[in-house]
Design a protein that fits this description.
This protein has 134 residues and is an all-alpha fold. It has helices at 3-30, 33-41, 51-65, 69-88, 104-119.
């Protein structure tokens, strides 16, 4: 792929990881109460809510440094799919007055993570271009 492609992967990893970490840090500081409530309302075990820390803190950190990137990006994609299913389902067919899609941010996270599942981390990563699950 070359240096330009690897630099593009670094940009994708950095943007996805940093933006997801804002959500994760918010939950670390404020606690998972909202997520616990959403999970309980959906009839799922409360323990399921703590997976948000994996999807919004651990996985983004791994993506950022480029270690086990494909697996970590998959976790982020699953985290976003669950968030859409549990919280944002009503926005699926919603367009705002400004023309933006109600799920545009969630879709960007989900599909950027999916792209990294297929692309891997690239050579500018802790795991290297051919590292485990990179």
């Amino acid at each position: 792929m070359g240096a330009a492609g690897d630099f593009g992967k670094l940009i994708l990893r950095g943007v996805l990881a940093v933006m997801m970490l804002f959500h994760g840090i918010s939950k670390v500081v404020g606690g998972p109460g909202y997520v616990v409530g959403v999970v309980a309302h959906a009839g799922l075990p409360h323990a399921f809510a703590y997976g948000v820390y994996v999807g919004e803190v651990v996985a983004p950190l791994l993506v950022l440094i480029g270690l086990w990137t494909r697996a970590a990006a998959f976790v982020i994609a699953v985290n976003m799919a669950v968030a859409v299913a549990l919280v944002h389902r009503g926005d699926l067919m919603h367009l705002a007055d400004t023309g933006d899609w109600g799920l545009e941010l969630q879709a960007m996270y989900l599909f950027t993570a999916a792209a990294l599942v297929f692309l891997g981390a690239g050579r500018y990563s802790a795991g290297g271009a051919n590292g485990t699950l990179n």
